[in-house]
Amino acid sequence: MADNVTALKALYVALGGKAADVAEAVTITDVLNIISAHYEGESDANVNADAINNIAAVADNIGGGGNDVGFVERTLTDYVIPDGVTKIGKYAFAYMADLESVEIPDTVTTIDEGAFSHSSIKSINIPMSVTTLGAEAFIWCKSLTDITSLGAITAIPSHAFGNCGFTSLVIPNTVETIESYALSTCSSLTSLEIPSSVTTIANNAFYNSSRLATITIHKAEGSITGAPWGAPSSANIVWTGE
After folding, report:
1. 3-state secondary structure labels for all residues of 99-123
2. Which terminus has fewer CB within 10 Å in the chain: N or C?
């Protein structure tokens, strides 16, 4: 726990706080209380404070239970989430420039907003236990080229995979909705496969994914309106009629 507190103190200082403010803090809760007081009324800094609070909230989730456990070191390259964890909290692995992979156990049911955003993660395998994915969960993960599974999520939320690096994606048959900008500005994406379970695709879901050439949809032609949903007008939309 001491290492976790030290890491959070260092992050506070990196975001403009004074080391002396947190010198006597013993627990993560102590540090968060100081952060909250420091940033009160400062709108720009509140964004940072909110991020820190959300990162630290992961202590209760990624730590396998209990307070002040499991703060994620920002310099890790690989991380194995312990069995028993049910949620990956907001911004848990965000902005981790050295991160390459995270192993997620099948006890996790939720990956929250921005959980891996702006990180350098290269591959992800989301287990079938995961049913909820938060907005911007993987936004700006430009090194993310390998998605083995998206689990059993029911929606791909807004900006979930914006600016990612994969070339193709097969959406699982648990997904019903693809929201605004869900797969926007994916400059390497060339092919996309959409299952019959999907009933709604936002008009700009694939906005600025300029190389998206083929969208295969396992439904009757025209059963989802709004094509090509922000993809290039030249994209070939293949309706399989299933």
Report:
1. CCEEECCCCCCEECCCCCCCCCCCE
2. C
pLDDT at 52: 46
Q: What strand order describes the sheet that includes 146-150?
A: 78-80, 101-103, 123-126, 146-150
Strand pairing class (155-156; 132-133): unpaired
* Of 110, 15, 108, nearest in space to 53 by CA: 15
Tokens of 201: 């695709």
Contact in structure between 61 and 83 (CB atoms under 8 Å): no
Residues 117-157 pLDDT 10s: 889 999 999 999 999 999 999 999 999 999 999 999 999 99
pTM for this entry: 0.73
Give the count of beta carbons closer than 10 Å to the beta carbon of residue 30: 16
- Determine contact, residues 72/79, Cβ cutoff 8 Å: yes
In our burial notation (b when 16+ CB lie closer than 10 A, e otherwise), range 198-225 reads beebbebbbbbbeebeebebbbeeeebe
Closest CA to 128 of 151, 108, 149: 151
The length of the chain, given as a count of residues: 242
d(CA 160, CA 182): 5
